[in-house]
Specification:
339 residues; four-stranded parallel beta sheet
Length: 339
């Protein structure tokens, strides 16, 4: 079973990998994103697609000759009144009609809106599509997969970078081994020293080192504590969803907005960086919401827009200037407090 390393991979890969392997099949990921992946995806995608969609096509090309099936689910809704991006809903059709010679696609529909047990139904349908129809085998695999998924979410909440988790999974390690690790302090604990920066954006942009120009680790190398959307507890997300007069339609967009509101309310960060993809329609709205909320809180705010032409030099210069400004503001506050 091939699983392209893009889009919802950063949200669901540990769940799907655990489930497929518990059934008795092999889960195969595409390789880390590189220039060849991106260039290949650009050649196969319509011109007006956003860079995450182009990357997804590239990862499909990387996998297609190495697997018997490709798992490309149709993500509809994570629950409530929210949906995934329309391109997620149409992704299996885009891939199927891109002109690539592909193995069979498993395009099971994931819709958790108003459907109790929707995730279990999704997993059962996926198992049936792979011809694993024994209900006891399915139930055992689901229990294992959901346990692994809960642990993965716990690791992200504790500040672990998804790539660290994926590396551990790919070498056969248990997620239990990672529970003691944390790459950032909990967001509601004030830092004794150093800068705290909220790096917000969709996980498939923020956590892909190539497409994001590895802003996450660049900030850490500058001495900043980096906080992401994934480090906001689910209960806080639900509470923040009642703060905005009107939420967005889209799941990932809402999570970015709610995370920004959470960090602003807690006064947990010194600045916010929004990492967005050029030509992403929902992000045009999200970016304005974040800008206005940061301005209201008198918090420094930076938008970094990336596409296939983005160079690491320009990104490095902008985040260095942003961090320098944050440090100057911090030094000024400390001097004023001491006088």
């Amino acid at each position: 079973m091939g699983m392209p390393r893009a889009l919802f991979y950063y949200t669901y890969y540990p769940l799907w990998k655990a489930f497929v392997e518990a059934l008795g099949a092999e889960a195969v990921s595409s390789g880390p994103t590189n220039k060849e992946t991106l260039d290949a995806g650009i050649r196969e995608t319509v011109n007006d697609a956003c860079i995450p969609i182009k990357l997804y096509h590239g990862h499909v090309l990387d996998l297609k000759d190495r697997v018997d099936y490709l798992l490309i689910p149709r993500l509809v809704s994570p629950g409530g009144s929210y949906t995934y991006c329309p391109k997620f809903l149409g992704l299996p059709d885009m891939i199927r009609h891109a002109g690539m010679e592909l193995p069979p696609l498993i395009d099971t529909r994931l819709n958790l809106r108003g459907l109790p047990g929707g995730l279990n139904r999704f997993l059962r349908a996926t198992a049936a599509a792979l011809d694993f129809r024994n209900p006891f085998t399915q139930a055992r695999a689901m229990r294992h997969a959901l346990k692994q998924y809960a642990l993965y979410q716990e690791l992200l909440l504790g500040g672990l970078h998804p790539q660290r988790v994926f590396e551990a999974l790919e070498r056969g390690a248990s997620l239990e081994e990672l529970k003691g690790e944390a790459l950032a302090a909990p967001p509601d604990r004030p830092a004794e020293e150093g800068l705290r920066v909220a790096l917000l954006g969709y996980p498939y942009i923020v956590f892909d080192p190539f497409v994001s120009a590895d802003v996450y680790h660049r900030l850490k190398h500058m001495g900043a504590v980096v906080l992401t959307t994934e480090q906001v507890p689910a209960s806080a997300m639900r509470r923040m969803s009642r703060v905005l007069p009107q939420n967005c339609f889209w799941h990932y967009s809402n999570r970015v907005c709610w995370a920004a509101l959470y960090y602003i309310e807690r006064k947990a960060v010194d600045g916010i960086i929004h990492l967005t993809a050029y030509a992403c329609g929902p992000d045009a709205m999200v970016d304005k919401i974040l800008e206005l909320e940061a301005k209201k809180a008198k918090l420094p705010y930076l938008t970094l827009t990336i596409d296939e032409h983005t160079g690491t030099g320009g990104v490095q210069t902008r985040i260095e200037a942003f961090v320098d400004m944050l440090q100057a503001r911090q030094e000024k506050r400390l001097k004023e407090a001491a006088s």
